[in-house]
Amino acid sequence: MNHTTQEGINNAHLWPLTTVVSVHGRLIIGGCDVAALARQYGTPLYLFDEETIRSACRTWRTALAACYQGETAVHYASKALLNTALTHLIADEGLGLDVVSGGELYVALRASFPPERIHMHGNAKTRAELEQALASGIGQIIVDNLDELAMLANLTVHRSPPQPIALRIAPDVVTNTHAHIQTGHATSKFGLPLDALDAAAERLRAASGLRLIGLHAHLGSQLFDLEPYAAAIATLLDSAMRMRDHHGFILQQINIGGGAGVPYTADQHPFDVHALAMRSGEALTDGCRRCGFPLLRLVIEPGRSIIARAGVALYTIIATKNLPHTRFLHIDGGMGDNIRPALYGARYSAVLAERANAPIEESVEITGRYCESGDVLIHAAPLPRASVGDILAVPVAGAYTLSMASTYNLTPRPAVVMVNDGSVRLIQRRETYEDMVARDVVSSQGQV
Asked: Distance between CA 310 and CA 9 in Å, rounded?
């Protein structure tokens, strides 16, 4: 699909790197006509631009390596989005992978992701998930609480070599983000309280099948301020010094989690990855010197900032509703494929895929198809005059949309395509009605 282009897209920082607008006003991503893809594969349809994903991976790797003289590693936080095709791409770019469930680990292993580059997170890992992780030989388990530590110690009795682990700490660092995505404060459900370190050390001393190699903290999501990261590093290093001086544990790495923000609307600015790498590198270098450590390995776990911008959600306008002061555009998707606006007021923007840079003519409510009044994808969206059948394109839709998607109202989940240099490939087919009844153990005739 080759197109002559004449201009870029408005608010280009919200769109995949390859986005342009054709001479006829049509939205082109990865060399492909977006509206044509929507009609070929149906809507809702999620489109991902391969070049944008690869570029984000390389930006994180090179920035961290350039700004810190010690060893570094970037692990993709797969809770933002995971599927087989994306797993292959992340592996190809040399990143590690963080998983938070047995399902995510299953997808990673099924895609032949190197298990030694996988970390497992989670505040409530089941025994079965821990057994799965141990049997798979993953590189590290991030222990979240004392009960998990006890279970893991029991599962690894006589294990040789010992399973590497890190302890997740609740560093009591408050961040400026939505309360639902704050995770580093003292009362968070995640991580060991600082005053539980001594108890953890006592249990570890008796756990011959475990080897503590580092400490971890994650502050939350959609963070734009750099100083909380520096504060978390200071707390982790103080904790590492306590583990050394009081308990004799010599640690090798500090993992500062992820959470780097991305812009979703025109008034928000891109996150400066290099600035975070620089600030974190400085804080860890200075802290290691202060504590008498060699330069510890610096690990970071971006998720949203790798995948969000690469994804665009495509919908068809199904119906309209005109009220005296409000116009509704009803689309064929909504909270089933993107619950973020309903869950915590996330904001998005949109364009018409066949009139991508056309003048704005109205402000509309873009509402979903699901039986909830809260199913409003975008409030007061500025658009050209839209009609039934128009294709709506919503940028920055790659993270925490499909990964939190549901079959509410028994509506199938969308298909997913990957575009690159004029080619397109289907990486996830659309869910079917048959898929949704596959788990039922009663036949269509009512027999068990």
From this structure: 15
